[in-house]
Every structure is written in structure tokens, then in C-alpha cells.
Structures
1.
Amino acid sequence: MPKKEFENDSKTLEQLKHLGKKIKNQLEDPEEEDLTFDTQVRSRSNVEYDEEEGRLALGDSYSTRKFLNISHARKFMQTLMVASKTKELIESGRTAAIREVYYQLKHSVPGLDENTFEDQDESNNVVVDIETATGAIREDLHLFAEKKGSLFGPVVINDSGDEIDCMNMGTSGLAIPSIVDHYEFVECDADFILLVETSAMVNRLVEEDFHEEMNAVVISAGGQPSRGVRRLVNIMHNRLDLPVYVFTDGDPWGYYIYSVLKSGSMSLAFQSDRLATPDAKLIGMTMEDIDEYGLEHVTEDLKGKPEGNGGPSKDYKRIHDVMDYEWMQNDQWQNQFQKMLDKGVRVEQQALAANSLEFVANTYLPEKIENEEFLN
Amino acid sequence: MPNGVEEGMEAEGGDHREISVAEFFEKNKHLLGFENAQKSIITVVKEAVDNSLDACEQDDIVPEVQVIIDEYDDKKCRVEIRDNAIGLDRETIPKVFGKLLYGSKFHKLQQSRGQQGIGISASAMYAQLTTGEPVTVYSKQEDEPCHRFVVRIDTEKNEPEILEDEVIEPESDEFPGDKDYYFDHGTTIEMNIEAKYTRGHHSVRNYLKHTAIMNPYARVVLKEPDGNKIEYPRVSNELPEKPKEIKPHLHGVELGVVLRMVDNSNARTVSSFLQKEFTRVGRTSAEEVCEQAEIESGRRPNTLDKDEIEQLLKAAENVNLQSPPTDCLSPIGADLMEKGLKKELNPEFTETITRKPTVYKGNPFQVEVGLAWGGDIEDEGSFEELRYANKVPLLYKKSACVTTKAIENVSWNRYNISQTGNRPQGPLYISIHIASVWVPFTSEGKEAVANYDPIRKEMKLALQEAGRKLGRYLKRKERKEIQEKKKRQLTSYAKEMAPAIAALADEGNEEEMENKIQKLVHDDYNPEQL
């Protein structure tokens, strides 16, 4: 494969070099008693909802990481190690999985009973730190994540010179990588994008030829959508002008998946402009579907205890959490959650199979799209 | 002398002269510490060792005690205890070892170990009843020949019966000094008893270890049946101050004691009886007590009946009497206690506290505590407790003892000691000593001290004082460890970081950078700061 040279490489290198110089200057300054760098606070307290844009944004709070603070020291070391590794990647024109970086840098720290990194979560967190400290994003740093999610539908993509026809991908589909910015859309006959929570449901839709019949790009998220999936939906929506419908379980977890795709997530709020698709709409499952499609006997009871009755805990707590988010403050959503609480049940996508296997592909989704019955 | 036992004995002696002491012993053996073979051997050793230590201290001799135990048959042991006290004279020996309840200690109010046992003659009785064999005693006084007696108790008459009485030449094979040591003066007892020699908490070995901790000026040697020899070394030649004898105080004395005092007193009037036989009673107080009790102060004391004496004691409660003097107490002192803990436990930290004497119900008492933490002490979860009354270890009935209650009353986690329930955890020994002329035991067995508020309070205060010191030590140690760990971590991290910084900045020398980071780490290190 050719060397990977990205558009932003020289800028990214400057950003990394700047971080190194900053630390070096601190070392050389006799007045300095510590080593520090600043990173944006990524906790909920520093996340704001931009109503106009319809997405989350990071506020202005910065926190200073200090080497001589024992609760920062380890992370401080890890950050510099990962930063230096990404600089090496860019300079050598390679990309690496964050898991590979983790294994490249993991070793026992001499003299201590610990490793530089104990698990991949540690290195993943550090990568986000570097993103906010330098302003370069993960893709700019030549880092990618495991593929997650898959795509089917009438679209032809040029990936680094190879053309991929996503209509002819059998039952596997196009595995979605974490970097999709270089994709070029050669052809597109699709009418809309359908993002689906579970891959089992996507399998069902593909088996029923839903993508073909409905001219749909069907994407499976496999749970919470990855950065790659979210970025792909974002660029396809913007470049191809396709409406986006999200199809999740009717529960707080499903609705939060929708919310992340639509408005962004709190931990990656600084990239919402790249990752969020504020125009996305929820097609189902809604609480009304239970009545409408006769699913009363296939709902699941909410787990945990309701508020005022020893709770809220588990599912109930999650409902209250999500309900309270600033970007969930509209009547439609409050209404959904309230109904969920009142009925004490949740409803899964696959509950539709109670009618028949093909019901979801032949009846449920087409009816909803035709009637434009969406939550927004 | 266990409360009650003596009175029962006297009553029985009075009404039924012919009741055998053997029967009395059988009836009371649970009170005397002979309820089973495992405990009996501890009791035998305890009685003898306590006597030896008391005898040595009485004459300012730094004690040397040897305990030799051999198993000679199934569940039978030969026990030999030697000391280097001044020895006993020829007339006393048969009575001490051959007459149950002989002895002076329980008629005197003086702090001593012996008040906690029935006397060595009970051991002799036990030997006689379980193996049928008499007791052999060797005694040597300075510049005198060594006497050897073989004594048995005539169980009908409660009188000693001397089977053998001879002088032993130092050259003779039988001379005890011929074995592996020689004392110029001292006493050796040998007896064969039914016994089960065990290890563990309730064992001779543990008893002697506890004894050695509280008596660090004694050298104690134990030879176990398997030939194993354990020496508890002497670490001080300084004996604690000798306790003074004290007369009883009207506020704390028991009816039975007064009954006996009335019989033995040569005072002519009740008033002079009170003044002469009790501490802190002057003429005015004596008259006041009599007046309140409505008893003629000029009566002869031996005309008082039991009810009248009770009346007197009741009346005395309402009369203001000065507290008893406290110089009758002999604590071992913080220094000696520390030496004892250090030599036997080799802890990392030791703190000992001797409280000032105080009084409960007319009885002076004094509390001493010691905490020993870390070092060779193993962390076995819960702490270990060392309980003493008048320097004598208490091994049984721990949970009923005021010491345990006092420990549970302290909030140990305030002193950086973790707690499970109320019990402190970790590599910790807590030693508590109560010194008193009259230790209030919970029962005749004299195995636990009663949970009286003033005693528990004194113990708690002492534990808290020592606990605060331990807490400070642990906090400082913890801080130092945190700072040292931090330094260790940062030093290692610096090695990983230096090349990364050089690579990121595209310039700079790795080694130079590491040195600079190490200097920051070094300047930051301060073991006193959290």
C-alpha cells in the first residue's frame, strides 16, 4: 500500500511539536517547579447543548495536567508516550490501530510493579487527551479503531482507488472502518439512510431485500455507533443530501443511541460538528407502536425500581438520566419517556417479529416512511 | 484465695470435721483451675511460677525460674519448677506444700500474685489424686545445706505427712543443682500429675511468654517434653518497687473479711477496732460510723454478730472517708513494660502508659497498657490481647474481661488502625495490666476482671493515650510511604518520558532531559507532607 499522507499532516506535526516544545521549555525554565499541559475538560459540566445547531459542544473549561500531581503523573507519562508515537506514525507515513499503539507502548515500567498501560481503555483515553490538547483529531494522528458496524445499499464508494459496490456485498456488507474521510461516493441511487441499532435487525432487513426494494442505505451500529459510523452518516448526509432515519429499541438506551448520532456524545463533544447529524429522525420503536402494532404481549418489563419506590435504579434511573438531558427537552421526547415510565415496559426492535419475520421490512418501516411518522 | 472457697471450707471444717479435703477438692476443682488435663498443667506451672516470682521480689532477688516438663506416660507429666528465691526453712515446707489453704497472702492486703491462686498445695493435692504420688521439694537457703522432702497430704486431717526428710550433699546425685544449673539458694518442686501438654493460646508456653513480657527482669527457661528448650531472657536487672502492705478501707471491704478480722483483732472496742484495723479511719470517723449504725462504740468487737457488722459497713458508706493511700501498689512501670514487649515481640513500634493510681470502692488500683505494632508481629487479622492482673497473665474468659470491653470502647480507626466491629485489626498486641490489692474478678475462677466503670474508664483512657501515639506514628509512616512511593513512580516515569519529549520537540538531549525531570522529582519529595 502507498504511504499514507493526509491533508493535515504538516499541521498535525506542528501541533505535536508544539506540545513537546512546551514541556521542554518548562524543563529549561529554572522558575518552573512542575511540568504541565492543558486539556479541555470533557465531563458533563463542560458540555453545552447548542440549540441552534442542534448538537453538543464543549465549553471553555480547561484542566491542567501536572506531572508532580500523583493522580496525574501516570497519565502525563502516557500522554507524552502516545503523542510521540503518533508523531512517528505521521513521519513514517503509516497508520496504526489504537490497539496496535497500545501494544507497541505497553511494557513494564522499570523499577515499578506496573505497566506503562494496563489496558486499552487507558491508551484510548490518552488519545482523546491528545486530541483536545493539540487540536488534532484521531484521524489526523494516523490512528484508527477496530471496524465496527456494516453498510448495505445502492451506493458505490471509492476507497483509496478501489471501487466498492455496496449493493453487491452479499450478507456481510461493507465493514465500516474508523477513518472514512477519504471515501468518495462514485454513484448513489439511495433515497435515505437507515441506521439500525442491532446487526441482527440489519440481517433481517437484508434478507428481506429491504435495501433493494426501498432504495435504502442500511447501516448497522452494533450498539452505540462508533466514530467511524457517525462520521460516515455525517458525510453521506451532507454530501449526498440523504435523509437519515434511526431505528432503535424503544428504551432509554436506544433513544440515547439516537441522541448520540443526532447531537453528539459528551466525551466527544469537541467533534460534534464532524460526528453529529442534527437532521436525523427516529423512526421507531416508539411507545405508540406497542398499541398500534399489537405488541403488548411482547414488551419487556423495565428492570430496577421506579422513583419513589426505592429507586430509580437500573432502567428507571437511565430513563430519568436521559430524560433530564438538555437536548431531550421537547414534548415529544418527554412524552415518550413518560409513557415508558407509566407502562413500566420497553419494547425491542425484534418484538416486531411477533407478527411475522418480514413484517418489519414489508409493513412497519415502509408505512412509517410513507406516513412520515418520525420523532425528531 | 478465691472468694467464697475459703468460707465454704471453714464452714465445712467447723460442722463436719471429718469431711475429707479430697472431697472438697473434687467439688471445687473447677474453681481451682483443675477442670481438665490441659488446663491443670497450666495451673500447676502458674501457681509455682507466681510463688517463685513473689518470693524473689520479696527479697530483692532478680528472679531465675526454670520449668521442666517430661511426659512419662499417656497423659501423665513430671513437672519440675525451680527458682532462686531465698528458699524455705525446714518448718514451713511441709505446711506450704502439704496443707491445703495454708499461706499468709490472703490474710494480708498487699498486692501480690499469690492472691490469685489457691496455693501450691492444691497442685500437690491434684498430683496426689491423679497419680497417687507425693510431691518432692528441695529447698536450699544460703549457707545452709539443701533439704529434700517428700510430702503427701493426709486427706482426712488436711495435714502434711512427711514421707522422707533428708539433707542432700552437693556431691549427691540427687542434688538438683547437679543437673544443668546451680542455685546457691532456692526451691525446687517436682510432682507427677495427670496432664496434657499442648501448644497454642491455652498452653504453658504461652503462659510463660506472657509472664516474661510482664516480668522482663526475670529469666525464665522452659524445657518442653520433646526436649525443646525455650529461654525468655532477662532484659533488666531493675525490680519494680515493692508493694507496701495496706489495711482494708471501710468502703471496699467485704463482710467475710471483716468477720475474720473481728475474730483476730485484739482491739477492745468497736471504735478502736475500726481505727486500728482499717485505713483512713480516725476517732471522729469511727464514732460517726458507730452512731449511724446505731451500735455502741464501746462494745467489744467480738460481740458483734454478722448483721451488726453488715450494719456497720452500710453506715460507713455514708461517712466521708479519705481515699486509701496508693503507695501500696506496684506497677511495673512504662519502661519495664516496654522492655518486656520489645524483647518478646520485637515490634516496630511500642508505646506504654502507666496511669496514676486511683480508687474504686475503697480499693486502690492502677492501670498500665502497652501497644506493640508491626515488626516481627504477624498480621493475623485480629489483634492479640495480653491481660494481666498483678503481673499474672490471664489466659481464660477473655470476652468477659473488662480489658476486652475497654479495648472495644476505643475508636481504633481514629488512630489509623482498622476495625472489624469494635475490634482492632492488624499486627497489634494490646497489653493491659491492672495492679490492685484487691482485683475484682468476675468469678471464683479468677480468670477475668469485672467490668467496673472506674476500671474500664481508666483502661480506656490509657488505651486512648497510647492509641494517639500509635496513630501519629502510623500516619507519619503512611505519609512517608506515600511520598516514597510517589518518588519511586515519578523517577521511573521520568525515564519513559524523557525520550518522548525529545522526540516530540524534535530537539534536546534525552539524558539531559531526564536529569532535569529527576531534579524536579527530587525537589518535590518531602516525607513530612501529605
2.
Amino acid sequence: MERRPGVRVLVSAIVALVLVVAGSAGVAARTTLTVGVFPDLDSVLKAVIPEFNKVYPDIEVKLQTLGYADHHNALLTALATGSGAPDVVAIEIGYLGRFAVGGGLTDLSKPPFNAGRLKDLFVPYAWGQATTADGRIVAIPTDIGPGTMFYRRDVIQAAGLDIGSVATWNDLVQFGRKVTRDLDGDGKPDVYLIAAASTIADAMYRGNIPEGEGVYFDAQGRPVVDGPRFVNAFTVAQQVRRAGLDARIGAWSNEWYEAFKRGTVAVELSGAWLAGHLQNWMAPETAGKWGARDLPENMYVSWGGSFYAIPEQSKNKDAAWKLIQFLTTRPDIQLLAFRTTNAFPALRAALEDPSFDEPVPFLGGQRARRMWAEAAARVHVSVIHPGDPVAQEIVGSALTQVLEEGKDVRQALTEARQLIERRVRR
Amino acid sequence: MTMQSLRSWPAKVVLYLLLVSLALLTAFPFYWMFVLATHDRSTIFRAPPPMWFGTATAANYERLLAALPFWRNAWNSLYTALMATATTLFFCSLAGFGFAMYDFKGRDVLFGFLLGTMMVPGLLGIIPYYLIIRWLGWLNLPRALYVPGMASAFGIFLMRQYIASAVPAELLDAGRIDGLGEFGLYRRIVAPLIKPAFGTLGIITFVGQWNNFMGALIVLKERTAYTLPLALRSLQGLISTDWGALMLGTALSVLPLLAAFLVGSQRIIEGLTAGALKG
Amino acid sequence: MAGPGDAPMEQASRGAGAAGHPAPALPRPAATRTGLRARARPGRGAWWRRRAAPYLFISPFFILFAIFGLYPILFSFYLSFHSWNAVGGLGSMEWVGLDNYAFLLRDPWFWKSLANTVLLLIISGLPQHVIAIPLAFILNSGLVRLRNFFSSSYFMPYITSTVAVAMIFTTIYGTQYGALNTALAWLDGHGFRWLWRLLGLELPVNWLGRAAYIKPAIAMLVVWRWFGWNTVLYLAGLQTIPRELYEAAMVDGAGIYQQFRWITLPLLKPIAFFAVTLTIIGNMQLFDEPFILTGGTGGTSESGLTVALYLYRTGFEWLYMGSAAAMSWVLFVIIVGLSVLNFRLMGRAGLERRGA
């Protein structure tokens, strides 16, 4: 081995430096639009691009697909350094709050976009999630996840119970005491109310948020996590755990899928999207045994959703805006997306399509999509706060301490509030 | 306890049992990965999970190729890892030789500094790393991945420690008397003596680069420039992941490493035959 | 050891030393030796080349470091005195002085993560070496065949990608159907119940859900992933120990334990110092394994939250980049401290070289 490789590298480094300084700009007749997405949105884009090119033949769409977490990480680096972001980016609701602060994403309320005029086209809460406190519109919603309660008809029937009797969360606990049963007499229950007690708390504190408030912060940005909404949610979850009504199974584990297949949990709270996954791969053999209904106490919550945004650094904002409008405001395209991946449309016109009145065989012929569309319309508009991700983490930690280590609810939440206050002050 | 007593057959049986069960423990995940690669996601997530091969291999392969330019990505990974290995072995052994066998002003300070650089948590470096690579115009190029680590502190440290214990100073003096230049000493005397270390560092570098994910995420923006870890992870969604195709891709991506390691460990063995040199 | 100023003298004395022993014969490549020797007679040029050579040899590292390493380090140092939400771009940093450090020192989660990291360093670092050294010794001793096969299989976990590791281990640690709990339940039925009582285990063990079990679960994964890596390092080190030493010891009647204790361990020091230093540096920055097993969260009651994981979450998930930078510097100081301690304990011998 000679020393030449090293020399060559150094030379090429210098050459590259010179080239960069010299700079270069390509001029193309066709606009190339880069779009950054994560699965399943890549499937949606692949289906939509041919349609888009029928209308806009001079815009070539290039997909950059990354894993879910990787996509958002790469976007963060691109925004931080001011370069390298695609022209259109998909953003999942869990990340939207943190990308909305700062000036990284184009404010679509301004000309030439004037997105404010599109407001009434969308499910109100989804639109609200993409609007910042100072009135900027940073993204356009494409799909939503209205929260719902799935239940096993066969399991509940076998216990001689009626899910219709559950009106309040307290009813759900009472219902759980009856449905949780030891069938083979080995001293351990074979059917539980729900996979994890924490899911109940998650649903409860996200529901009935006062108008103008966020999940974790009030309109003034003060954390409200030791308020009654959280105390109540934690207390119910604690009751469920103490009574042994949950199977203590984490989501997205083999145990979770197996519980759905075998019918060892009677209900599960989730976004409407869970139905598509149950049907496609988690538990296809349970078709027809499931039902869905609204959450107790007419609580309507948001459980997932995706958006499209244009990074401020994009050089093709015009074409980017064309694609986003095409993806989000055309009912036929939103329905195409729904057929491709079960992504529940955020566009109201798409929800009015007759296909949403059809019975869903997997859910025993129920007209569940209409129910979810109506539930989505009732979700309160809540305010996003840049501290949401860290608050979510701290509250989640407090919840596991309550459930796993038996910590006092009020004490756990007071400590959580103090932690959040200290963290978000800077 | 003497060597003889360990050579008796009951002791040997126990020893082999121990070694074999350890080997099974470490090799099992490999077996299982290949098993999962032959299933689709509806059978992967059974409980208990499948332990024997399934029938979805062809379908997984088809979906893998539909989702990714898999072989293109594999070539990118191979090229980057080979370049990284070749350059790292050369620069690190040379520097390790310098630190191990010479007394020069500032050596201990410089070596301490080099060790110190390993202790800086690297995570926050990714933002400036991106800025430098963009400034050099190396986005989407393999060299953006292997050039920064060519003379890694880790590799130099390993080589220094190995050379210090494997190369007697007398040999170098003899070499000088025989008229070898300083680089000649490295090439004719040091390099042949440190084959096992070449093998070890080579494998570690190759595997490290083959699996390099964070760097690739930051500097590779084009689908066709992706290396395998990046491409494979692009199958992972929030709720929807094609686990069958992902496991098949992962299994395929590990095969070359397996081959490389088997060849590499052969080299380690070869190093023993140089034992005649060591007085 | 001769001082740095008198290289020619040193050369002369070493030459004499080499001549005094029946020095190993160099594979003399050609018969033109004498001619070469005449040309390279230690004159001014050779002396100068010998002084300059080491600087030249080590220069690639420092050049590359200047290009790729210095800026990131300065950047994160600068960043640690600022408040920066990265999505606002580079222009949105705000000077906050020592505020990030002050926050950190009073942040309960930081202290928790530091304690977790140190505990994990011990319970996952120690076993790696305790397994690897005897294992490498046995493999190197010629007692067993198939050395190649065994060392390859022990190294395998290092090759496996994190995707595969994540799939496999979350399944192994599953509460109801996990392989580990299945094995424990089988043992439970075969007379091992007293052992669980002793350890305070309650079957089935919720490995990844209960705070008390997360650290052992992480440690087992770390040991599984890295003991083979260390074994290979030690194997390479053992091969520098001349076989004749063992043979001489055997002639003197030394048993296998004496050989291990009095030949292997002392001569293994340079590589052991290297391996232990790397374990300290690597485990203090432990990230992959807790990330995989806790789904990136740190687990129940943050009991699997390491400093590196907390740093990542603080900077990249919650976007307090300044805090994260300060954290990385505090971590750096701690790692340096531990490494110096390691150096004090075993480094002197670890940095010595043969023949010097």
C-alpha cells in the first residue's frame, strides 16, 4: 500500500472546495419537486403522482422516503441548517407542534397561498392543529385519526353483557369488572377489559379540552396537568389497574396482536385507523367479530393524523403548493388515498362521499365510517404548544409511576407540573 | 489443575458444551432473522413467534424490490465499506506505528488529545457535520461517509496498543541497519507483524461502516445514493411496516458481513504463523 | 527509555541491545543489503527523516480532525451557552450564559440518567470482560478445535443490524410469550423456584415494563452484543504472546491457572487497557440498547434512561439544543475523569511497549 490514496483524498478535498466556492446552478425546463414522506404516505403519493401529472405534466415529482422517525429527524437537521429539506414534507401530528415554532415552515396564510380561504374545507380540529397561536398556518391536514372504541361482539356476548350500557367512564370500569373473567379456572383471567390501563387515561385527558386551551397548556402557556382533567383520567386508569382489569400489554407487541386474534381483550381505544390494520394483518381471521362506537361520555379526541408543509427554504414553493392542494383539497384524490391506505380523509367533502355510508364487513356490517366522520367534526379545536412533546413525556412518565409503582395520583401530577414548568421556561 | 487435566475427555466435553451453548446463544438471532425473512407480517407476529421457515420469501423479495432499489443500495454500502476499510487500515496502522515506536516531542500530549476526542459525545456533531459536507459539496457521495473516519482515533488507539506489544524495537533497529527508510520499516517489518490487528480493525471498520446509519441519514438525500441501513429503515412507518420485506432485506444485508467476517477471522489465524518472528 | 532529545544515542544503544540477544532473524528480502546499508548510513538526512517520520505518520488524523472534528466540537461548546430551538435555523440562537448548566445540575432527570448510566456501565461492562478474557484464553490455548468457528459466532451479534436486534429482543423479553419467560417458567417447574424467591423475581417477569427489570434487560443485551467483540480483541492481543513462554512454563510445571495468571494477564495489559477504556467510553455513551428496548423513551420511571438517550431526547425530540449541548459537555468531563482513573489504575503498564 502506498501513500497515494491519502494524497488523492486531500487533492480531491481541495478540488471539491474550489468547486463548491465556484458554485453551480442548474436550469431545467421542467420543475423537479422533491417530496419527503414516510410509510404509508409513500404509497399514497405513488398512487397520486400519475393523476397529478395528468394535470401538471411539467412538474416532475421525486419521492424521498425515509422511516417514520428518520424522516422527522432529517427534516429537523435540514431546518436547523437551512438547507437539504424537500420542497414538500409530510409531518405527523406528534411532530407538528415542534416544527411549527420558529420560521422553518412557510406561513401559508400569506399571499400567494392565502390558505385561510381553505379553512372551511377541512375538519375543524385538524385545521386548528396546523394553526399557531399567532395565526400562522404552517401545514395543511391530509388525514386524521378520530378516536373510537373498538369492542369484541363475541366476547361481550359470551359474558352476557351489553356494551350499550356503558355511558360513562365509570360505567366502563364496572363493565370491566364483569367482562374480566377466568374461564378455565386456573386463577388467572382469560379475558380482560383492555390491553393497557394507560390507554384509558390517554383518551380521557385528550378529550373535552376547553376551547382555546391545549392538551397540556392553557392559553397563557401555563401547564394544566394537575387540573381535574388529568386527575380524573389518572384515577380511572388506576382503578382499572388496581382491579386487575387490564392485561398489561404494551401496544405494538406480539402480545397485543395475539390478544386481538384470540379475543382476550374485550375493548381497545384507538384511532379509527386501527380497523384497517386489524383487517389487513393483525387479526384478519377475526373479521365480523368487531364493533366500534364512540368513547364514553361523548368524548371526542384526536388520535393521529398527517399534514403537508412547505419548508421556507424551498425554491419551488409554487409547484409545492400545487401538489399540496392537489393532495388535500380534491375529494377524488383524498378518496384514492383512503382506498390505498385507509388514511381517514381530513377533507370534509371527501367524508360526504356515499362510500362512507357503506357498511364495513370487518366491523360486522356497521356503518362505522359515517360515525367516525361525525366524531371528527365534534373534536374540540385545541391549541398546540412547543412544549407539548416534553409535557407528553413527563405526563406519560407520571402515569407509569402511578400504575406500575403505585404512586399517589395528585402527587405524581403536581411533580409533573413542576417539571414541565421548569423545562419550558427556557 | 494442569493442562493435562484439561485435556482429559470429561473436561473437554464440559468445555465444548460451554463453548457450543454460547455459540448457539449468539448465533440464534441469525437463524431467527432468516426464519422471519421467509414470513410475512401476519405470521411474523404470532405468539409464540415462528421458529421454522415459512413460504413468503418470494413475495417478500418482490415487495422489497418494488419498495427499494435494493441492489443499488447494497452496492453503495459495499463500496463505502470497502473504501473505509482500506483507508482506515492504512492511516490508522501508520499513525499507530508512529505513536508506538517513536519518541518525539509532544507525543504523549498528542496521544492524550487523540484519546480525548473519542470521549466527546458525537450526537450533536451531526448538524455541523452536515454543514461541512455541504460546504465540501459531498452530499450524496460515499466519500462523505468514509473520509471523516479514515484516521479514526479508535483505530489508531487499537493499532498503537497492538504494535506496542507485537513489534520488538530491536527489529526496527535491525531494519535501519539494513538500510530501510522509516516508511520502509512500516511496510517491510511492521505491516507483516500486525496482520491479526489488521484483521480485527478491518472487520470492525467494515461492519461499522456497513451499519453506519446516522451519518448516512444526514448526508444522503437521494434514494439511489442510500446505503442499506437507510433504505431498509425507510420501510418503517408509524403504524405500517412491511416486516416481511424488511426482515428479508435485513437478512440479505447481513450475508456479505458474514462472508467478510469468515474471511477476516481466517486472517487472524494467519497472523499466528508469523509467530516465528517473535523471540 | 531514552529521552526525546538524543535519538542517535538511543539508536546506538538499542542496536547494541539487539546484538546482545540472539535476535530474531529478519526476513532479509534481498542480497543487495550491503549496498543499501552503505547509502543509508545514519547521516544527517536519515536522522532528520527519523525525527520527522512520526509527525508525518500521525498527521492524517490531525488534518482530518481539523476539517471534520474541530468544528463540531466548537459548535457544541458554543451551543451550550445558548438557547436554541433548531427548527428556527442557525440565526435563532440566544445567549443564555451558564443557564443550561445551571438547569442541568438541578434537573432530577439528568441525575437519574447519570446514575442509570454509571450503574449500567458496571453491570453491563464488567461481565463482558469477565467472559471475554478466559474465553479468548481457552480459544487461543489450542485446547479446542474450531477456534475460528467459535470466535466467529461470538462476534456475530456485532454484525446484526439494530432492526434485527430490536425485533429479536423485544420478542425474547415478551411478558407472556417471550422466550426468556418461557425458559424461566420451565425451570420453575423443574425445581428452581427457590432461585426466583432469592432474586425476588415474580413470574412472568415484565422485563420491559417494570422499572426494576429494565436495567438488567438492557445489560443482558449489551453483554450479548459486545462480549464477542471483546473476545476478538483479546484474541488478537493473545497472539502477541509468544507460544514459547507457555511451553517454558509448562516445562517448569506451571498449571493452566498459573499460566493464565502469570503469563497471559500481565502480557495482555496493553490490549486490556484498550478494551476497558473503550468499554468505559462506549458504555458512558450507551444509546442503542436502551433506545431499542424502551422504544426510545427510557422506560418506566426513566429507569432505562441513559445520559446519551436523555441528551438525544432533549435536543432532537424536545428541541432544547442548548441544554443537550451542555449535557454532552458534562458527560464529556465525566468520561475523561473515568478514563484518567482507568489510566491511573492500569494505564502505566498499558501504555508501555515491548523492547523499550
